[in-house]
Design brief:
The complex is a heterodimer. Chain A is an alpha+beta fold. Chain A is 19% helix and 37% strand. Chain A is built from 6 helices and 14 strands. In chain A, the strands form 3 sheets. In chain A, strands 1, 2, 3, 4, 5, 13 and 14 form a 7-stranded antiparallel beta sheet that branches. In chain A, strands 11-10-9-8-12 form a 5-stranded antiparallel beta sheet, covered by helices on one side. In chain A, strands 6-7 form a two-stranded parallel ribbon. The longest helix of chain A is centred in the middle third of the chain and has 15 residues. Chain B folds into 2 domains: 156 residues, no CATH class; 160 residues, no CATH class. Chain B is mainly α. The mean pLDDT of chain B is 87. The chains are: A alpha+beta, B mainly alpha. At the A-B interface, β1, α6, β13 and β14 of A face α17 and β1 of B.
């Protein structure tokens, strides 16, 4: 189901989701260059694609320079975290993750209609409880509440169709603007600015969904971008998933106002960006530094 | 009633050699502890032998005395410091300077104080017996008794110093855990010993460079014998060369003997082994320029003859060895012991790695 048109989603409106399984080759390079030598660098990376019913990570290579031994552990949400340290003085640090991922066609069938009441069952609640509350980037204050009511004045009747409705609302009222925000921008600030990038839209939408009582979690990953939005930079992508009773987690991408389909590759899930930053860590040394990120997502077949 | 506390079995600490990692500070202390004690032993022997040699030259005038002692001073101590303290170099002043003067960092007393201070800093890493030996030596040197022994019979005094060193090295062999620290101790010992052997040989170049008439004479023989005794090598030499003490044979023996443990070649072979054990490099692998230079010299020595060395100049050869060993010492320091100074302002600042926005 490859879309025929080369126009952007912005102009044409939502298109039918891809259902065709595809094989993607992904390379994600992060390069830090410091002013002078730094040392005692301790880092974590969440860069290994998940393997689940919708995607299979066939190959994964994780490389760092300066060389150091890399180990991994699963975090609280079962994301695979690679960690390493570079104690000796160094002037740059490169983290390269390369993977090959086969995406798999959704087999769960159509999303069932479900109201909020079905979320209350304790056996269901344990799956989504974490994702109903405020988190570091997503506060649930009055600003967010006002925006949530504007987005969905009648309240929730069906989880999935209301999710799509909130996505449409964001799409109508917010503008995709690179460089208007930064990595630390919180959802409340996005509401003020009415613009941002995918990370901001994901945080904003998480706030609106959670305010309405819909469990929603942040997803970090990549997608095969054949039609770039104007000014869009090649970087890792972010979207979200909502929990639908009787179905499970379902991905929705507010930046492109569509559900996450076989073009999407999931790296990690968390309450927001703060839980699952792709590369994070600390070091000792002079503070000024430069970061370059190069992401490439290629379709193999 | 509270539950009785059941003692949990203590988890055994891994017995594997590589689990016994050490701090670079510890490596530094062990290395210098070992170097200093080896140095003190060599100085003691050198002074002892030369004082005895003087008995044969009782008719030396001031000038001749100075010619004899100055090179020894140069090879073991600091000439400049010496002349700040003394007017002329004779048996009394040079031996006192090299034995008791704390102003001289290479005097026996300075070396042994430093050895003991280094040992004290890593007291928990060495055996009680090792530390007690050094401490006893330290207390002996600090007591007024030491000078009395020295003044009544210098030979007994130097004997005592050598015994402390022998005792210490023997105890190291029989009580020290075989971990990386042992390699650092050995590196210190053999590097110092190799260096001192070259210096003892070089003495003959400086001092004992005889007037033409003396070559082959009784004086010359006595001096070459003194060289051998300074390296504790007289008897070992006699096993191989029963007849005369010939300069060429002495040099050959002190440089090339594969069996005598103080010869340059044996010391360097020990150094080579310990270096490799420490770095984990393969047998013939040398990874840094300093190690390569050392490996090349050692390899060259396997194909060199004493004739070649003498033709090209013994002094030049010994200098090359000293330079190579100096550079190796510096390399060991840089590689294993040195922690680069950091901008303290920067050091205390802990930074978050910059984060990438997802777009």
């Amino acid at each position: 189901m490859i879309p025929q048109s080369s126009n952007t989603a912005e102009i044409k409106g939502p298109q039918a989701p891809w259902t065709e399984p595809i094989l993607l080759s992904i390379s994600h390079l992060t390069r830090y260059t410091y002013e002078g030598a730094v040392q005692d660098s301790f880092n974590e990376a969440r860069l290994q694609p998940i393997t689940d019913t919708l995607q299979q990570c066939r190959d994964f290579r994780f490389m760092i320079d300066p060389a150091s031994s890399v180990r991994d552990y699963p975090d609280f949400y079962a994301n695979c975290v690679h960690y390493f340290d570079v104690p000796q003085p160094h002037e740059s640090l490169e983290v390269l993750a390369e993977s090959e991922v086969q995406t798999i066609t959704e087999t769960r069938g159509p999303v069932p209609e479900a109201g909020l009441s079905s979320l209350q069952d304790p056996s269901v609640k344990e799956h989504h409880f974490d994702f109903l509350h405020a988190s570091e980037f997503v506060s649930l204050g009055a600003d967010v509440w006002r925006e949530a009511v504007d987005a969905l004045p009648a309240g929730v009747s069906d989880v999935w169709s209301d999710t799509v409705a909130i996505g449409e609302y964001i799409h109508r009222n917010y503008k995709y603007t690179p460089l208007a925000t930064n990595v630390n921008t919180r959802a409340t600030e996005v509401i003020k600015k009415k613009q941002g990038v995918c990370q901001d839209f994901a945080h904003l939408m998480l706030g609106l969904l959670r305010t309405h009582g819909i469990p929603a979690r942040y997803v970090s990953g990549y997608f095969l971008n054949q039609h770039k939005l104007p000014g869009e930079i090649e970087a890792s992508h972010a979207w979200l998933e909502v929990f639908i009773p009787g179905y499970g987690w379902k991905g929705y991408d507010p930046t492109h106002r569509r559900e996450a389909d076989t073009r999407y590759v999931k790296l990690a899930i968390g309450r927001d960006y703060g839980d699952i930053r792709p590369v994070g860590g600390t070091f000792r040394g002079k503070g000024t530094r430069k970061m370059v990120v190069e992401v490439s997502v290629q379709r193999i077949s | 009633m509270s539950e009785p506390i059941i003692p949990t079995a203590q988890k055994p600490i891994s017995n594997r050699r590589d689990s016994l990692v050490m701090l670079s500070r510890v490596a530094n202390s062990l290395y210098w502890m070992s170097r200093y004690i080896e140095r003190s032993e060599n100085i003691a022997r050198l002074l002892d032998v030369n004082l005895q040699l003087m008995l044969d030259f009782a008719d030396f005038d001031d000038d001749q005395l100075e010619k004899h002692w100055l090179p020894i001073l140069c090879s073991a101590g600091d000439q400049e410091t010496f002349f700040k303290l003394y007017e002329k170099a004779d048996s009394e002043s040079v031996t006192e300077f090299l034995t008791f003067r704390e102003e001289n960092p290479n005097s026996i007393i300075s070396c042994l104080f430093s050895a003991r201070e280094n040992a004290r800093q890593v007291r928990d890493q060495i055996s009680l017996e090792m530390f007690e030996t050094l401490n006893e030596c330290y207390l002996f040197l600090k007591s007024s008794n030491a000078r009395e022994v020295w003044q009544t019979g210098a030979h007994e005094f130097y004997e005592q110093i050598k015994k402390y060193s022998h005792l210490f090295q023997g105890l190291t062999g029989s009580t020290f855990t075989r971990n990386e620290g042992y390699e650092f101790i050995n590196l210190g010992k053999f590097l110092e010993r190799a260096d001192k052997t070259t210096r003892i040989l070089d003495l003959k170049y400086h001092i004992l460079l005889p007037s033409v008439a003396d070559v082959g004479g009784a004086v010359d023989a006595a001096q070459w014998q003194a060289i051998l005794r300074s390296a504790s090598a007289l008897e070992a030499y006699r096993r191989f060369h029963v007849e005369d003490i010939l300069p060429k044979k002495v040099a050959e023996f002190l440089i090339f003997s594969p069996t005598f443990p103080r010869s340059l070649l044996s010391c360097m072979q020990h150094l080579n082994e310990d270096l490799h054990r420490l770095s984990g490099n393969e047998r013939r692998e040398y990874k840094s320029p300093e190690e390569r230079a050392f490996g090349k010299l050692l390899s060259d020595m396997n194909f060199m003859t004493i004739e070649e060395i003498l033709n090209n100049g013994l002094h030049q050869f010994l200098q090359l060895v000293q330079t190579t060993l100096d550079r190796l010492d510096d390399h060991i320091y840089q590689e294993y012991m040195y922690h680069p100074p950091v901008d303290t302002q920067a050091e205390i600042l802990l930074h978050q790695q910059q984060m990438q926005q997802q777009q």
